[in-house]
Amino acid sequence: MQIRKAEQSDIAQITRVIQDSYSTVAKQYDLTPANCPKHPSNCTAQWIERDFARGVHYYVVESDDKILGCMALEKASEHTCYLERLAVIPEQRNRGVGMMLVNDFIQKASEIGVSTIGIGIISKQDNLKRWYEKLGFIKTGEKTFDHLPFDVAFMEYHIQK
Fold first, then answer.
1. Would the pTM of this model clear 0.90, i.e. be above it?
2. Could you read off the pLDDT of 82-101 as tens digits, one per residue?
3. Residue 106: phi, psi to the nearest 5?
4. Among residues 99, 117, 101, which one has the least CA distance to residue 109?
5. Contacts of 133 (CB under 8 A, 6+ apart)
6. Taking the C-alpha atoms of 92, 93, 99 and 102 in order, what is their torsion angle to the nearest 10 degrees?
7. Which among 4, 43, 51, 139 could disulfide-bond with 56, CB atoms 3.0 to 4.6 Å apart, if both were Cys?
């Protein structure tokens, strides 16, 4: 397996990986295009194209030319970036792919000089929260948004300089 920076030609495959990965969460929490249109299970190629256009960097992990997972890095400020769209196809879960992506993300964030990585997850996803905590993230808050049918938990990772 190797991680590489995604290119425009990867957009269709990235879209499918995100849709497939997040569809399990959508089923678990009954998220639909009607009640949660911006949930990644509803991802379109246009979302990824817009991200590329505004400077979000996507990275993919692949094996035998098949994309198994992805992540996106958005630099929010001089000191902060966001880990977004972390996705691993369901049949590759629990095999270290997600951890490989997050560790690579931390390295990339360090290289660009940021000190904080932020994420947002569904607050009720306790297993995911514990997984991130094992990787060194800490919960920093929780918020209710009128346009979402769930609360969002915010977590941060502080890069040691």
1. yes
2. 999 999 999 888 888 999 99
3. -60, -40
4. 117
5. 139, 155
6. 80
7. 51
151-158 β-sheet, strand order: 2-5, 57-63, 66-75, 80-88, 116-122, 151-158, 138-144
Dihedral angle over CA of 31, 145, 48, 72, nearest 10: -100
Place of tokens 């817009």: 50
pLDDT tens digits, 117-135: 999 999 999 999 999 999 9
Give the residue carrying structure tokens 């992805």: 70
Q: What is the pLDDT of residues 12-50, one digit of tens each?
A: 999 999 999 999 999 999 999 999 999 999 999 999 999
Q: How far is CA 56 from CA 77, 106, 134, 143, 155, in A?
A: 13, 16, 26, 24, 20
Q: pLDDT band for position 149 (50/70/90)?
A: confident
Q: Which two tokens stand for residue 75?
A: 């630099």
**Residue 19 near residue 27, CB atoms below 8 Å:** no
- Domain extent listing, the chain: 2-158
